[in-house]
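2024-03-11 09:14:02 DEBUG pipeline.ingest accepted 1 chain
2024-03-11 09:14:02 DEBUG pipeline.ingest length=832
2024-03-11 09:14:03 DEBUG pipeline.predict start
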Amino acid sequence: MWISNPEWFLLAPAMLFVGWFLKALRLWLPLRIACLVLVMLILVNPHWERLRPGVDLWVLVDQSDSARDLLAPSLKEWEQLLEESKGGDDTLSVIDFAGDATIRMGEASEILSMQTNQTDLPLAVNMAVANNDTRRVSKVLLLSDGYSTESLHGLNDMLREAEMPLHHRLVHFDEENDARVVSFRAPSQVQAGEPTMLDIEMQGSVNQKIDYRIRRNKEVIGKGELTLGSDGRQRLRLTDRVFEPGSHHFEVELITPNDPRPGNNRSSLWTEMTAGPRIILLTAYENDPVGKALASLGLPVQQLTQFANLNEGSLSGARAVIINNVPANVLPGEFLESLAFYVSEQGGGLAMLGGKYSFGSGGYYRSPIDEVLPVSMELKEDHKKLAVAMAIVLDRSGSMGAGVAGGRTKMDLANAGASDTVELMGANDAVTVFAVDSEPHVIVPLTAVTGNQGAIQNRIRRIVSMGGGIFVYTGLVAAWEELQKAPAGQKHIILFADAADAEEPGKYKALLDEITNNGGTVSVIGLGTDKNADANFLKDVAKRGNGRIFFNNDPAKLPAIFAQETVAVTRSAFLEETVGLQPTADWMEISAQPMQWPSVVDGYNLSYLRTRAASAVNSKDEYHAPMVAFWRRGSGRSAAVTFPLSGPFSDSIRAWPEYGNFIQTLIRWLVGNQEHPGLGIRTRVDGSTLVTDLFYSDEWDDTIADSTPSIVYTQGGIDEAKEGQWERMAPGHFVTRIPLEDHTPYRGAVQWNDATIPFGPLATQENREWDTAPAQLNALQATANASGGGAVTLLETIWESEDQERFQSLRPILLIALIFLFLVEAAWRRLR
């Protein structure tokens, strides 16, 4: 309890004096005494303590791309000043935020899985409000550049209701050196082979010199230097001619020294080169007879033997994709990851043909298309005929201690991958594991997997990052010395290393010659990209080791890559022997015309038919394995031909009179009927929203009465399909609006009964994270002022709180009580 005007207590003796000498007033009556007491209390104005002592300060630290570097020079000093100036009853809590928000634990913040390309200030404020102690004075202090990518509408109401004023200390950037792309335009569709006009507008300081780069699918197609005009603006126009069909990704980048906001120096877009429906044939053979057989089908065939430029846009306009003896590790990750959605949701077709680099032997086990294929690829234990001794060499250098999503480290995920490797190995296999920094450390000596699997996995999972770099040569020497203790059988080394920090090549060439001359092989999993400093060295290790090379920039995918490599080595088989064929009745699901199958094939990939898949012909050996398997997968179709149709082990099948007819019939089924008269869509990107219009003619009126169309989409490399919501605009016209993340490609399809119309990829051009519109700062300042806060000049003053914040006056309640008693006393006298 707190009295704000105690001097009014001096009135009490005067009241007693008046009551004593003026007895006619009858002030001793109980109701009148009560009224006098209330008058006295109203005058002294007592307050009750509604909040506990001290201030709870929630500091919101902007960790987004646009603010992090600006805050870095001052952040530690500011946080130390706040910590030192707080009182004994005060508490300081820190929320790091960008696209996500997390309450900081401990003395330092580890931003693990935060999306730093967004600034979601409302999310951070919500977190502070949700964790606020309503029994204490609470304030919010924002440390940021002041630009939020999300609307602040309604934020001041929330802060006022929670009684948490928003204060801010903003950092500013030097606008003088800020060059940016104002606009980047190109047509959304162009006929393949026709010129594509690229129109770029840029802005900066007057007469500023700027270097620019223009890329198509990551390849530089234009570069130069230009000078901005007297108004600080410049426009650049150029043309590009692309003959390859599909969607192509164009990007413009401005290169300026000391640019305070480099994120607005880039802009990108997708343009589709249309050439009608086509079939994509990915093949290991320049003169592939499969391509010649497809040419007479009536659809254009895009035959590729180089795969570096493939991406999700390569699938635009394609009816089917055929993979002919191409290993998974040579296909770009973004392309391989897009195939599952392409088949199951966009209605595409996928076929894999046999060969020594297909199916499990090609590393497709646990790949993004594993579940799409109608066959499973890992060998059953009783079908393994050759024991394998495997050495796993793991990089445990300092970079492996970095955090990733889920609160784990890169080392944890590498350990999980190595653990999965042990789980996939067979009963007769053996494994040894080394953790390597500047020297090799034996984690598991060469040990038989049988009976020891759990113990081996437990040891692997306990490996931790210890600093330094990885000495590759030293690790390979130790692994090979250990493998030589194994009895006769296949010997293989998996080297896992940071592609940016793989040290000490040593005499690796001589060592790899020794390994391969003695029947050993070496594969490499590089954490990073093929552009990293040590990528070429790791490529050479894999090439000289007769193994495979994987580059992966997403640590979360490491376990799957380890599994692919393990199955390719230990649980896959290409049988190099002639085998007979046993036809089944399932071929009739593909064609009403019976097929005159050959009597034998020269070899095949051993695999197993999945549940609900069909096999048109099986092997006549002890495995009874599917040779031509197929099924419907969502909106699309998938097939597996496990014997080679080209190259080695295909002589018998290429001499088959029905060779061309078989390929054409299978692919015709794979493509299906994708003509849907009276149905069409139009897509466009409006700011940060994908707008899709669906139009249908009167002939679809009966269909709309029984079913409604759906729209599904996916973003980036995520396989998960999300569903949009339609809004009926008029008869024959639906529209849906999907919010987009900046620069993330979106693909999708409209599905209606048997009709599927694919679209994308599409992406935003603007980057809201680097937008510096004055309206955003004005909105922040208005929100702060409306909440009772504002700009903070001296951070130590943030702890000051007025007493009225903690205490609430009882005067209104006492006044109501006085009026009530006065009326009661007056009524009592009249009734009397």
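2024-03-11 09:14:41 DEBUG pipeline.report The first helix runs from residue 11 to 21.
2024-03-11 09:14:41 DEBUG pipeline.predict end
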